[in-house]
Amino acid sequence: MGRRKIEIEIVKDPNTRQVTFSKRRTGLFKKANELSILCGVEIAIVVFSPGNRPYSFGHPGINVVAAKYLQQEPELSDSLGNPSSDAPDIEKLNLKLVEASSDAPGIEKLNLELTEVLTQIQEGEKQNETHDEILKQDNVMKLSELKELRDSYKELHDLVKLRLSDIEISVCMMLLAQDPVVGIKEKSARKKRRKN
After folding, report:
1. Rg of the chain in Å (alpha carbons)
2. Could you tell me the keywords of this UniProt record (predicted)?
C-alpha cells in the first residue's frame, strides 16, 4: 500500500491534536533548520500549541530576526538570543558551508544523516530528562531495600512451594484412603496364600 494524500482538516480529538502538533512541530523546526543552513537565510518561526503555549525557532536567533523584520537595528546575538561577537563569523561559515555543500555529491544523504543525528540527540535529551526526574523522586528505592524485597519474595516463594507440596500429599492420602490402589489387595492375598 503506497502513500496517499490525506485530507487536511482540524483534528477533532484533543489528545490526538496535541500529539499531531508535537510531531509536526519538531518536523517543522527541522525543516526550518535545514533551510537556514542550506540557503544561508535568517529564519524565525513562532507557533502556538492547542493549549496556547508558544514555541519558537530562530536562526541566528528569534530576537535578531524579529528585530530585523520590525526594521529595528538588529542586536548581534547567538541562537539563544545572548549577545555574541561570533554571529557574523557564524553567518560567513554557514555561507561557506552552503557553497561547499552545493558542489558535493550526496547532499541529500548527508541531510538525512544530519536529520537522524538531530533526532537521536533529541531522544537522548528526553531520556536524560526522564532519568533526572526519576532520580529526583523521593520514593526511589535504595539497592539495599531492593535486595531485602527480593529476599522476602524468595522466602514467600519457598513457603508457597512447601505448602503446595503439603496439599498435594494430603490429597494423595485422601484418595488412597477412599480408593485403595489396585493390585495391593492381590499382592497381600498372594502373600497370605504362600504362608498357608
Report:
1. 37
2. DNA-binding, Nucleus, Transcription, Transcription regulation
